[in-house]
Design brief:
By secondary structure, this protein is an alpha/beta fold. It has helices at 2-20, 25-32, 36-48, 60-74, 92-107, 121-128, 159-166, 182-188, 192-202, 219-222, 228-236, 286-294, 305-313; strands at 78-82, 114-117, 139-142, 169-171, 206-209, 212-213, 241-243, 246-248, 276-279, 300-304. The protein is built from 13 helices and ten strands.
């Protein structure tokens, strides 16, 4: 009995060093004068003996309840809500990890799949969570170009970055986000390379898209895809959000004017007939996310508590 008590004391010490003090197993082994394997076994013993108790500042039960409310209210095929960091008001990492889990389930499958993406900071965070692998059977397809009409490249390209990590075939959109004229957009969208990408995107098993607010220094404006005059015009037309450059109003209806007449991205379905997963969070994006839900531009959502609470408070 005394030997067991000493073992539990040592296990508790190892667990404290690991979970509370943040030591690695190598550091624990050095501090307790043990081998790395012995330190690992002690931590495992502490867990099995229920010496460790966890407390979450953001209970997952609250997130699950919010997700189910959103799923029911908007008839979503997929809905996940992650905790918002109370300090920063952001949940980019949490959303990234959650979305990456769903994305990885497609990538590890040996059956060839087509997976489509827009671009943006949140989706780049998703890609950063994907481990390196070799899956040449898949096709990674973009639904949006990655340059301004003046040739400036966007900072948050997704498909090439993801394809580099997983070894899949990649199909970027060979156009700017917004063309300089309607005539240029029509010409660009008749090119064989664009038509190939469009056809693949329409066959995608799942499409992961970012959602941006249309505002001064919003994603499209900040990245130089639209200029000061164009963002002002969109706001005057009632635009509240955008997906892959396509602006829409408070009810989620795609605009028929403004830069939408020159967007060279793959056209959006409305209502969406496939799995289109919006990956976006934060209270400042809640109006844009809500509008996309109202307009049935998305059929799935991965978001955070802050956005979910604002969306559900609206009537």
């Amino acid at each position: 009995m005394e030997r067991r008590d000493r073992k539990l004391d040592q296990a508790a010490h190892a667990a404290w060093l690991y979970y509370i003090a943040g030591n690695t197993q190598e550091e624990i082994a050095a501090k307790l004068n043990l081998s790395r394997q012995a330190a690992q076994r002690l931590v495992a013993l502490a867990v099995s003996e229920k010496l460790i108790k966890f407390r979450l500042d953001h209970p997952l039960s609250d997130c699950i309840a919010l997700a189910e409310l959103l799923r029911d209210k908007f008839d979503l095929s997929l809905c996940e809500v992650v905790p918002t960091d109370a300090g920063s008001g952001e949940a980019l990492n949490g959303i990234g990890v959650c979305a990456a889990t769903h994305l990885e389930s497609y990538l590890v499958n040996k059956t060839p799949s087509i997976i489509a993406f827009s671009s943006g900071r949140t989706l780049r965070a998703v890609v950063e969570q994907i481990p390196s692998m070799h899956q040449p059977q898949h096709k990674i397809v973009s639904i949006i170009g990655n340059m301004s009409q003046y040739g400036r490249a966007g900072r948050h390209e997704v498909v090439i970055h993801l394809a580099d990590r997983v070894g899949s075939q990649v199909y970027p959109v060979p156009t700017p986000v917004v063309a300089t004229s309607v005539e240029e957009r029509e010409l660009l969208q008749t090119q064989r390379s664009f038509l190939t990408v469009k056809t693949l995107a329409e066959q995608a098993k799942s499409t992961f898209i970012g959602i941006g607010q249309v505002a001064w220094n919003g994603p499209l404006h900040q990245d130089g895809f639209i200029n000061d005059q164009e963002v002002t015009e969109l706001m005057e037309l009632g635009a509240i959000g955008e997906i892959a450059g396509w602006a829409y109003d408070q009810q989620g209806v795609l605009l028929q004017e403004g830069t939408n007449t020159r967007v060279a991205s793959v056209p959006l379905e409305q209502p969406a007939q496939r799995l289109i997963v919006g990956v976006a969070g934060s209270a400042k994006k809640a109006e844009a996310i809500l509008a996309a839900l109202r307009g049935k531009l998305i059929t799935g959502l991965i978001t955070d508590e802050a956005a979910a609470q604002v969306i559900l408070a609206k009537r």
